[in-house]
Design goal:
By secondary structure, the chain is an alpha+beta fold. It is built from one helix and five strands. 16% of the residues lie in helices and 45% in strands. The radius of gyration is 14 Å and the shape is elongated.
Amino acid sequence: MIGLRAAEKHCNARGMVHGGVLATITDIALGYALAYSADPPLSMVTASLTLDFAGSAQQGDWLEARVDPQKIGSRLAFANCYICVGEQRIVHASAVFAVMNRPDK
């Protein structure tokens, strides 16, 4: 799980956390969760990242990324992620990562 306290520098001109910040949090959280689900950790790169914005966050909000890994194959890994403010889901993301090394396969 990855979290961030939203600061003024994370917000756009409307005072909401910028979509690019939210996309970055999901990409990092998804990548770490998938990579560190193996021992030793896998090397991966993002192949596809899709986000749906269902809400917004403001300065001072605690943003928490919750990851649900789906499958880690020999070449591709799949997962979903929600960014939450409290219990409210404000972002849903799904991603595919290319596995660069898979020593157990």
